[in-house]
Write the structure tokens for this entry.
Amino acid sequence: MANLRVFAPQFAFRNPRTTSQLHISSYESITSVNFAQPVRTRATCHSGRTKPYLECMQSEYFEPQRFSSSRRSMERFRSDDDGGGGGSAPSPSTRVYVGYSIYKGKAALTVEPRAPEFSLMDSGAYKISKDGFVYLQFAPASGFRQYDWSRKQVFSLSVFEVGSIISLGPKDSCEFFHDPFKGRSDEGKVRKVLKVEPLPDGSGHFFNLSVQNRLLNVDESIYIPINKAEFTVLVSAMKFILPYLLGWNAFANSIKPEDSLRGNNANASVDFEWSR
């Protein structure tokens, strides 16, 4: 229970057609607000022939809170502009983790983008050495709204595989096979197959990840249905992140007008396609 004391000024409004005035005031009051109960408002009105008088009593908790909250928000944003903390967007040097999760009765799926890798060249420039990928984590359900992440199975979608999922129509399907140890001594001991197929009723797609791991004696299949709305969000996120997985955003951010002028002078003798 909180007690609030409210002081409100008195205002006078004159009717231009008459000589009477309308006074609206809220006298000093003590209002008890029980946050578990709805706040009640009571209005008492008095009127007279010469000077109509309106007197209102109501809880003034919400309005001061709203304005004080706005002030705090403005002060916070000012501090953000000055380099302070708060709810500002992270700086380019800050590492940020994002993802998209889908929870169903038998399994959960999380989708996370992973950044590409770059290598430094002798010239001081950077070159992409490994494309980014989309990291899928499947966890089976262990109870009602509970999932056993210790038994999770993972699958990394390459840029090509991301494009395949983006291009899926309502009745299309795709399948990917991975061998994490391909080209090494343990090749063939771990097999992963991810199938994305339309649901029989046309309401979306299902993701089915089958993992056979002879090294850990694991043979598991995790199935999760994804409705149209969830699949649309997933595809939209993949479309957005795809150029970043290729590192094209880094190239675009490095473009400067002066660099293009120097490049034209340095590469004047290069035989480009459009110069033929």
